[in-house]
Amino acid sequence: MEHSLEKRFPLHAKDYELYEEVGEGVSASVYRALCIPLNEIVAIKVLDLEKCNNDLDGIRREVQTMSLIGHPNLLQAHCSFAAGHNLWVVMPYMAGGSCLHIIKTSYPEGFDEPVIATLLHEVLKALVYLHAHGHIHRDIKAGNILLDSNGSVKVADFGVSASMFDTGDRQRSRNTFVGTPCWMAPEVMQQLHGYDFKADIWSFGITALELAHGHAPFSKYPPMKVLLMTLQNAPPGLDYERDKRFSKSFKELVATCLVKDPKKRPSSEKLLKHHFFKHARPTDYLARTILDGLAPLGDRFRMLKAKEADLLMQNKALYEDKEQLSQKEYIRGISAWNFNLEDLKSQAALIQDDDIPNAEELQMDKKQNNRSDDFEVPAEGLSAVEPNHSDAALTLDTEDGFNNLQDLESSLASFPIKPLQALKGCFDTCEDDVNNTSPRDDNESSGPSSSLPQNVINQNKKFLSGSLLPDNFLSPKKVVTDGDRDYLQTKYSSQRNHSGPLLLRHKRDTNNLPSVDDTSEGAIVQRKGRFKVTSADPMGPSNCNFGPAVGGPSSPPNHKSMAASVLPPLQCILQNNTLQREEIIKLIKYAEQSCAKNTELTEAGAVDLSQVPAVETKERELNFQVIQLQQSIGSLVEELQKQRMKNVQLEKQLRSMGNKIEK
Ligand SMILES: Nc1ncnc2c1ncn2[C@@H]1O[C@H](COP(=O)(O)OP(=O)(O)OP(=O)(O)O)[C@@H](O)[C@H]1O
């Protein structure tokens, strides 16, 4: 493959002298090199074909795309050839490196707006070109935006790009799952209706946030959590306190891109006309600002690698179990994902113990409600069980950002099996896991929750209050800060704050609670933080009662009666916690038993060959169930964490009320 008309780049390794390594991706290392006959510095991406033998198609696609494209904002390969068991792709050397490198070494808090506008403008021009030529890039992110020393910007990495014309029938929607989770559009994760070039617009919006904050939203979370958060939460945006520095037009641009319904996202062409790009400057501005004074790319790369290695060493000491997910893979944003119960536990353990929402999350949660209509959970994704929350006096306030159990059920339902399939290739999902999902494929219309045992679902529905997780279920965490990202690690001390017995046991009138938030909301009698207590419904199981309403909004406040009235429901919540905890343990046991049965069946199949087809079917079914349960447990654990936090807050509130009463 040769492209340059003026220059013919040689097709033999001996004609190149490799210098230092300047980049590393999942599948390749990139070196600065000299093309000896032409006396020109180039970059050479070296792909180990033996390691990539599963993805030769991907490589072929990347090289093909790199050779066909011709736009000043796209990195075009000079040539490529095989060298031993490697493939060498020779390309222009981009001495500034990737935006991610620059952020990590010099701008951990993100770039200023004129820089962002300039970068995004160049990237968008590349996208307009790609889309007009029927390509979806599928991996737009700061790591794939390269800068030359003069500030010129090129989008790289066509490793996952796809042609919408691949099938020859001008297919407009893809049905494969590629990309990096933080930047991945919800429809790509969901895989319900395929996706098209609008997936790049979502990634473009996420990249805008990455450039603005120094990291992509959710980048500190493990991949499965990212998937869940992207699907469940409102789209991220520039709504945080620290985002005050950004213009309205920038905020609008991001919001326009990060709409969950792809149909509502603008095309790249339309986006290019957005008034935000009036702030874009000529690219030499980038050379004068962010590139000025930077160390040579090779040195920066070495420094980053050393920092990464340091972090790994620190983490190694904390991770004795070899099967723990590699922090290095988190750093890259890509995880070797073995989807099993242990992983779920590890993943859950990596989620911040307190799960106290930071300003960022609070803002996002708030937006979730405002913008949740952006995206509908598809009908087939709804739970087979009708959610019924009428028995809950403590409602999880979606207004204030809590997902309620309905969300949990629908998340289980709307997150059935496709994402798991989809993880294949992206996270090296184990082949078996993927294959085992086939029964779901065969019958997508059956309610995705249907394989979750009915009794489990029904029982779950009862419990809307907080949780007490077993001590060993989630470990406390330590946050290790690495520049722009926080990595959460387990640590081996126990500081958990479980809800304890209540000390105050008075009956009070719920209507007289001191911080009645809004009389217009009638049913809401208490609001604290992100939740509210309602008086409309009895609390959970029938043995939990609110006291009869005495007085009303106009009655003078009576702290003693208030405390008494709130105590029984709180006690009830605590009881429910215990029940919920038992429920979780049951779920785990169920999953483990299914696994054990599964193994037994496999062994039996090996002995009696006549039983093989039946055993295989059973095995698939069981595997399928186990996977679904594992997903359910993951979601339940998340929900329980939230509930536990609520309980802690309720207790605090109760204590302060107690104090008031004593005074
Ligand atoms: N032409 C180039 N000039 C300078 N640096 C480059 C060049 N191409 C790539 N790099 C650097 O090498 C890194 C890895 O390259 P690339 O993204 O192509 O590999 P990959 O295996 O496809 O990565 P991934 O799949 O993780 O995005 C880039 O992030 C960038 O920092």
From TrEMBL:
Q: Where is the composition biased (Polar residues)?
A: 445-455
Q: Where is this region: Disordered?
A: 434-455, 491-525
Query: A GO molecular-function term, please?
Result: protein serine/threonine kinase activator activity
Residues bound to ATP: K45
User: Which residues, by range, are in coiled-coil regions?
Assistant: 633-660
Q: Which Pfam families match?
A: Pkinase
Q: Which SUPFAM superfamilies match?
A: Protein kinase-like (PK-like)
UniProt-listed CDD domains: STKc_OSR1_SPAK
Database matches in PROSITE patterns? PROTEIN_KINASE_ATP, PROTEIN_KINASE_DOM
Protein kinase domain location: 16-277
User: What keywords appear on the UniProt entry?
Assistant: ATP-binding, Coiled coil, Nucleotide-binding
Similarity-based family: Belongs to the protein kinase superfamily. STE Ser/Thr protein kinase family. STE20 subfamily.
Q: What is this protein's name?
A: Protein kinase domain-containing protein
What is the species listed in this Swiss-Prot or TrEMBL entry? Lupinus luteus (European yellow lupine)
